[in-house]
Fold this protein.
Amino acid sequence: MAKRLARANRYKLLILIFFTLSIVSCTERIDIDLDSTYTRCVIYGEFTTDTTSHWISITRTGDYFKNEPPSPVSGAVVTIGDNENSHSLTEDAENPGNYYTNSDVYGVVGKVYTLFVDGVDLLNDGNLKSYEASSEIMPVASPDSIEVIYKNFWFVNVYAQDPLETEDFYKFLVYQNGVLHSDSLQKIQVIDDVLFNGNYTNGISIYFVNPDSEDTFNAGDTITVEFCGITKDYFKYLIELQASARPSVPLFGGAPANPRTNLSNGAIGYFAAYSVSRASTVIQED
């Protein structure tokens, strides 16, 4: 039992390491006892309503008995498309395994986007594999404003009207002077609208910063909140991933569940398409 738990924990760690380095529909649960030769494709990427170069990262798991890190997958044929348009991605020559669209590409709310990854030589044996995943871009509430206040901690509060007709899920990313502050898995904030569906949020707190931390907020800082309208499945994926990162007590619990994936053919990771809106404020002197 202890041996099985140890293996499951090491497999979970591989997923967490990949997600951190790369910082959502059909659900697949995987509970498998890996051996040292079991290699899987790890795919993570995002496609949003921003006009920008969107990215996909493709790696393969290493031999976890030897603590090998994931290795990049080069030479894959990667496209993202809906029923009308298809966008080819180009691999970054300086960062193998990272694939990018052109910078003028953007997603549209209400459309379903499918990621196709072809020509993956996972085991370097000439046997090519293909993977795909789909995600719909959901609408996101446009914020009226945000505020940052200090009461023993820094609180980031948002003001926005949540739609009544839909069940909505949000991911919040926070930037300090243009640099991502919520730059780790546990700092990413995800919530649903169960407590304020159809209502005005009226300053709900979505982010907290310890004043004693090295990257604490200061007067004069420009704080930006990125509102991301995500699918329910991607919301659950992030919740599961964050839960996997928390300490566990193996002696009193079962083997940890692996986070879901929306990728086919045994791949792990997630392809997320979502809408984005933003609001900013400057922290004033007291």
Observations:
- Confidence is low (pLDDT under 50) at residues 1-35.
